[in-house]
Amino acid sequence: TLLIIDFGSQVTQLIARRVREAGVYSEVVPFQKAEEALKRLNPRGIILSGSPASTTEIDTPRAPQAIFEAGLPVLGICYGEQTICRQLGGEVELSDHREFGRAFVEVKEASPLFEGVWDKGSRYQVWMSHGDKVTAIPEGFRVIAASSGAPFAAISDESRKIYGVQFHPEVVHTPDGARLIANFAHKVVGLKGDWSMAAFREEAISRIREDVGSGRVICGLSGGVDSSVAAVLLHEAIGDQLTCIFVDHGLMRLGEGEEVVSLFRDHYNIPLVHVRAEDIFLSALEGEADPETKRKTIGRLFIETFEAEAEKLAADGRKAPEFLAQGTLYPDVIESVSFTGGPSVTIKSHHNVGGLPERMNLKLVEPLRMLFKDEVRALGRELGLPESFVGRHPFPGPGLAIRCPGGVTRDKLDILRKADAIYLDEIRKAGLYDAIWQAFAVLLPVQTVGVMGDARTYDFVCALRAVTSVDGMTADFFHFDMDFLGAAATRIINEVKGINRVVYDVTSKPPGTIEWE
Ligand code: XMP
């Protein structure tokens, strides 16, 4: 294991990504828990992240002195380099100009960090983002690369295997950065790089068996990638000790409910309870136009419905379920380092099963909690899940209800489902599905006048949305060819009764959000 100590940089997760891409298992811990993690994980090497803090201030975080005493290989990035210098006897000063963006470093000395990637005497592009700068390096260190703004752009003490870089190798704007991080993991720390999804699958299965024993597990299935992969993995580990509950709220896309049932029940033979709760959800949503109320209603009903089904299972004559499985991912688990404190504003209350385990007095099983989204996809492929499930765009818990601004009715949902299916069909046919993070139709509560076959129409407007994104936190609208949009619009208007106008949403996030509600 490589341990990544997080000092609060925005891009710490990317370090973990790069290390894992190099086939080495890594975990991120906030600096406050670094001491404990050192004992627990017994890591072979350490990476210190960047930070918005300044080492020139007294109370800012430091790396545990124990890592230097233990003689562990260390790579400090940006703030990480600065804290190494501070802690080992160098000097860091507040600089009057921030260096931000693209820069070039010249390699001064050969080093295992650069092996096969950077040659002595050559110049390479890197990404800088720092205010402070190192002004004197500790004894035993040498400069191995320098830039005009950062004379100590990369430093090392090769005998102690301690490295510091002022630039950010984890971001794509440092084109060779991933290979430098791989060099640290393989050549400096000496880890082999044989961590793979096949290995993870085996480890995860034995861990689940150990944790669960002979207990029964229930798992909420939504049709999304995360819960699907979690369910198949659990089933492989514990077979019929697993029961999946699929709460079908009637807000799914065209054919989606049946697909989930046929894949999991018929193909995988996983015990599956299909709860047809459309009537309950739609009658509760009737006449409700406020987005937050809609979200909260759906969240509450989901929990109540799920709970009721779980209680039925507890009374089916077998052992009562003790565990609740969730498809929680690593980005939700990594504790964020906060310097400002204070609550952030709620933009939307997300619908998930948070709070369920406490309410139901169940223990949690989260077999995907150490994985990133694309790793979950890779695991899904490893488990033989069809590409249509593994590669699918994210779909929000409250489903089509939040893609029908205003009141939701059965008729509107039917119209929306048809338009959405045509739009996605066109996207797939054009070979664009995988280039897009998320694409969907929205049915506006607005009617406009049109003319079709000499007759006046007065029907709804359908908005099309497509965005690219890395994590859903920010997004850009997708740049379709106008001919594509024209063709999709024509098909929707011709084939879907109830829609006579189509518009395309060209709002990015921020200031928009991906979903309309
Ligand atoms: P927004 O609309 O906030 O969405 O830009 C960001 C991402 O989150 C998805 N989303 C949800 N996912 N439960 C979910 O599981 C929710 O309540 C929810 N609301 C939004 C959205 O589809 C996008 O991928």
UniProtKB/TrEMBL annotation:
GO CC annotation: cytosol
InterPro entries named among the record's database cross-references: Class_I_gatase-like, GATASE, GMP_synth_C, GMP_synth_GATase, GMP_synthase, GMPS_ATP_PPase_dom, NAD/GMP_synthase, Rossmann-like_a/b/a_fold
Domain GMPS ATP-PPase: 195-392
Keyword Ligase: yes
Metabolic or biological pathway: Purine metabolism; GMP biosynthesis; GMP from XMP (L-Gln route): step 1/1
Recorded superkingdom: Bacteria
Residues annotated as the enzyme's active site: 78 (nucleophile), 168, 170
Oligomer status and interactors: Homodimer.
PANTHER family (alphabetical): GMP SYNTHASE [GLUTAMINE-HYDROLYZING] (PTHR11922:SF2), GMP SYNTHASE-RELATED (PTHR11922)
Protein's name according to its UniProt entry: GMP synthase [glutamine-hydrolyzing]
Protein's organism: Afifella marina DSM 2698
Lineage: Bacteria, Pseudomonadati, Pseudomonadota, Alphaproteobacteria, Hyphomicrobiales
Gene encoding the protein: guaA
